[in-house]
Amino acid sequence: MTMYRRVIAPFVACALLALLAYLVYQLARPFLAAIGVGVVLTVITFPLYERLRRKLAGRDGAAATLMVLLVLLLLVIPAVGLIGALGQQATDVYGWIEKTAGQGNPAQQMLGKLDAYRGQGLLGRLVEWIRPQIAAFAADAEHTVPAAMKKVIGTVTGMLTSILANALAFLVNLILALMAMGIFYVQGEHLLGEVAALVPLPPDRSRELFSRLGTVTKAVVKGVGLTCVAQGALGGLGFLVVGLPSPLLFGTVMAFTGLIPVVGTAIVWVPAVLYLVFTGQTAWAVGLLLWCALVVGNADNVLRPLLIGGKAGMPLPLLIVGILGGLFAYGLMGLILGPLILTVLLFVLAESHRAVADAEEPLPPAAPGPPATQG
Contact, 279 vs 297, CB < 8 A? Predict the structure, then answer.
């Protein structure tokens, strides 16, 4: 009987708890992304909710309802409209690529201009050397550039089509995210306290950990999200000015490719510059090249450190590694999960180091006792 109470009963209880946790995870797995979006939006907008709650004399329900409606009006409805517009522009640009690819080699006009400089001394010899290179590159680019652009646009179109085709699932996830926001606004502090009680740390250190997680979430959304949006907007503006089609779509693609290290937005704007060059629009090509290389490409180097600064509590290169690793491992939600995992890891390592340092600290010398009496 003693062995059952000490060994078997705790083992059975742990096994049942693990089974129950697994079953709950299976039930919630289809909705984890929506709940995660609700958590992120709640963390970002919670200071605004607190101010609104104070103005409403502490009425939590009314403040939460107003905040959910505000998020719906300012974020969700414009996002749905943007998805529809992107779907239309994706169809248009796909047709444009087909039409451009069927017009033959667009570099012939540029090669004809170069032929006018043959026999003109040093410039002529330079043309004689560079003309075959351009011709070979143009012949290859005639097939590779449209194919690459089709692949990029096809990926984005597939994502948009999937969202539109699964409109019911999208609507359900949207409702769940908004419901999660309402619950977390009202019960978030209580739920956070319950979770903190499960963390094997002193209460003050648990609060510090969750405070850091919230800070990192805000820093990533502001630093990475706003930087990508800025790069996409600047890139789309460049496409609009030079007269390329579907600037909204290409700007959106650049916002996503801005997450890719080294190459980043160049995946999108380099083929566009080549197209302008091969169609004889050299001035526009140079302008777009300078704009994208100097402004769009360097926007992340300026905005990301400015928006994040030291708020994330970790070096910026390590934060970028967490973002990219999370993106490849967990999808879009990994943009948040990656940095959060690194934050927990660094916090645990710091706590372990501090515990070891406290254990090795020498004890203070004992206070001298009263002098011994002589009998």
Answer: no
Structure tokens at 120: 């003109």
In a domain, 89, yes or no: no
* DSSP helix/strand/coil, 118: coil
Mean predicted lDDT score pLDDT of the chain: 75
Decide: 195 and 207 in contact? Cβ < 8 Å.
no
CA 375, CA 359: separation in Å to the nearest integer? 42
Q: Is the pLDDT of residue 115 over 70?
A: no
User: 238 burial class (0-12, 13-18, 19+ CB within 10 angstroms)?
Assistant: buried
How many domains, the chain?
Answer: 1
**How many Å apart are CA 268 and CA 148, to the nearest integer?**
9
- Angle of CA points 41, 46, 50, to nearest 5°: 155
User: In angstroms, rounded to a whole number, what is the distance separating the alpha carbons of residues 111 and 119?
Assistant: 15
Q: How far apart are CA 101 and CA 58, in angstroms?
A: 63
Considering the domain boundaries, does residue 187 fall inside one?
A: no
| Pair of tokens at residue 235 | 């890139």
User: Residues 294, 284, 145, CA angle at the centre, nearest 5°?
Assistant: 85
CB burial readout 65-77, b (16+ within 10 A) else e: ebbbeebeeeeee
pLDDT for the residue 375:
44
Burial, 215: exposed, middle or buried (Cβ in 10 Å; 0-12, 13-18, 19+)? middle
105 Ramachandran zone, left/alpha/beta (phi>0; psi -120 to 50): beta
Q: What is the mean pLDDT of residues 26-32?
A: 81
Domain membership flag for residue 303: yes
Alpha carbon separation from 364 to 209, 357, 368 (Å, rounded): 30, 15, 12
Q: Measured between alpha carbons, how far is 222 from 311 in angstroms, rounded to an integer?
A: 11
Is 76 within a domain? no
Instruction: Please state the separation of Cα 227 from the chain's center in Å.
Output: 10
Place of tokens 């129950």: 20
Q: 116: burial class by Cβ within 10 Å (0-12, 13-18, 19+)?
A: exposed
pTM beyond cutoff 0.85: no
Higher pLDDT, 107 or 218: 218
Among the listed residues 235, 273, 272, the one whose alpha carbon sits nearest the alpha carbon of residue 252: 235
- Any idea which residue has 């049942």 for tokens? 16
Calpha distance 246→153 (Å, rounded):
11
- Domain of 303 in residue numbering reads as 204-353
